[in-house]
Amino acid sequence: MKPLLLILPLISSLAMADISPKAKLISEVVEAKPLERVPPKYPVEAARKGQEGWVRLSFVVDEQGQTLDPVVIDSSGIKAFEKEALRALNRWQYSPAMQDGKPIQQCQMKLQLDFKLEGGGEGVRRKFRAVYVKANKALEAGDINKAKELVAKLKAAKQWNMYENSWFWMLDAQLAAALKDSKRELESLRRSAMSNVGDKYLGTGNYLLNLQRIFVLEIEDVQYAEALETYKEISEHEKGKEMSVSLEKYAQQLESLLQGDTPLVKEQEINERGIFLHRLSRSQFALADIKGELNTLDIRCDNHRTKYTVAEDTTWQIPVKWGTCHVLFEGDKGTRFKVVELQKTSA
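and the corresponding structure tokens:
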């Protein structure tokens, strides 16, 4: 089976306002464009096992069009794919982003690399289906220990194609819900939905139901900006109109909350990769209750980037003109801390 490379851009949803004919253009940014994309090597062992998967990455394009500081945001769970994706991305070349005719860094670059085998077949394979069905029946019967055992068996094998990947993570989310582990449930549902292609692998019904549950869990976890993006994805789906109507009032409440002056407090934790990527909803934030070693924070905005050491007695204020921002925190695995987002300013 021949390996294929699919590149899916991960685009943040931005509200676009109508432009008045009286408005004057103050500044214009031309986004970085890819010039050379070296495809990642397909790991030999993964190809032999019929494994497929995906890797989501965040990176910076500098003024010379070079890629800088790529990090893995998430993946289908196969480390060999992560390694090859990072190796390839470091060799990519872009035309730099331009602002008022001058090259600038573009710091909000995100994409997804899919590792897929040509001729790998459609749907799940018999062996996967047999274990999946047993695990699902165990969950329905309330036999959590049996379900945990079977899910662990599937995860250890990691012999997934793209369909199996989506169905495995949906199963893991069901187990997490039974265990009342909402954080794990949300992570697994996101992996099952797989930006831009989850509909194909799960079917429209499952895909939309997963997005609805993701929307609820994101609200419960104070991930309001992410919840609004999920709502937008539902509302733009050709079969998501009825569901989006039922969720519209909650989306409006989120919009009002984000525009308000109530501090948004979210507890975060450094993951096994030694990082955590937090999307900012407001232009000011501070840190509190750091438990563990938190080393640096890397503020990556649409057209500006800054990196700092960590201090609890500091408030970071980001100029609105920098655009949408994420903060990449780096530290020891398991370090916990609170991000406190404050009222927006016009800076």
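(Above: one complete record from the training split.) Residues 11-27 have pLDDT under 50 and may be disordered.
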